[in-house]
Design a protein that fits this description.
InterPro entries: S74_ICA (IPR030392). Keywords: Coiled coil. The chain has 214 residues and is mainly alpha-helical. Helix content is 48%, strand content 9%. The strands form two sheets. A three-stranded antiparallel sheet has the order 1-2-3, with no helix packed on it. Helix 1 crosses helix 3. The C terminus is likely disordered.
Length: 214
């Protein structure tokens, strides 16, 4: 039994190379020959009051349930100081209300909770993946719309450049042009000014001659 971790006084050793079986009113638990793990009755025909669980609810229960590392207080043998990990039975019972005691955790219930929580996590990931697929599809649509807009802008830019090139070839730059015609005074205005000047000279001459203009 060397290396078994169970030695000393008040120990119980069993040598059964063909296996070990425990039969209770609820089923059978056994270790097959050559195996190191327990197998427990779980066939459908041995069960009643079967109700499906909601994996997402079980996952929420696992998320809210404290899990810690700890040591047993009465462990004074070779297992003294051995660290374990897991929830407290009271918390497990409060979260899932299964088993026949709130001071013990039945391993088959712990396995069931773990499997249901994994299913709940898988469903959550699937939902997120669906949302991501929708978002990816929307991004693809937006990229296609952006590409169409780029093509339209490129076409408009090409037309603008072509129009600018045509104006340059025709010699018209769109600014003011010199018609080559000098600005001239209004002849009518100049004539009026000349007539007024003549009248002024006549009046001045009459006054100098001593005549009165009436």
């Amino acid at each position: 039994m060397n290396g078994s971790g169970v030695t000393g006084a008040e120990t119980f050793h069993v040598k059964a190379t063909g296996g070990v079986r425990f039969i209770t009113g609820g089923g059978t638990t056994y270790i097959s020959g050559g195996s190191t793990g327990w197998s427990t009755t779980s066939t459908r025909s041995a069960k009643t009051n079967v109700e499906p669980v909601e994996p997402s609810a079980v996952l929420e229960g696992v998320e809210s349930m404290p899990v810690a590392t700890w040591e047993y207080t009465g462990d004074d043998g070779d297992g003294a100081g051995t660290t374990h990990i897991g929830p407290m039975a009271e918390d497990f019972h409060e979260a899932f209300d299964v088993g026949d005691s709130d001071r013990h955790i039945n391993s088959i219930n712990a396995d069931g909770v773990a499997l249901a929580a994994i299913k709940g996590l898988a469903e959550r990931l699937d939902e997120r993946e669906e949302r991501l697929d929708d978002q990816r599809g929307r991004l693809d649509e937006l990229e296609a719309e952006n590409e169409a807009l780029r093509e339209r802008l490129d076409a408009l830019e090409a037309r603008r450049l072509a129009a600018d090139g045509g104006d340059a070839d025709s010699g018209i730059d769109g600014g003011d042009t010199d018609s080559g015609i000098d600005e001239v005074d209004d002849p009518g205005t100049e004539g009026d000014d000349g007539a007024a000047a003549g009248v002024s000279k006549t009046v001045a001459g009459s006054e100098s001659a001593g005549g009165e203009v009436r």
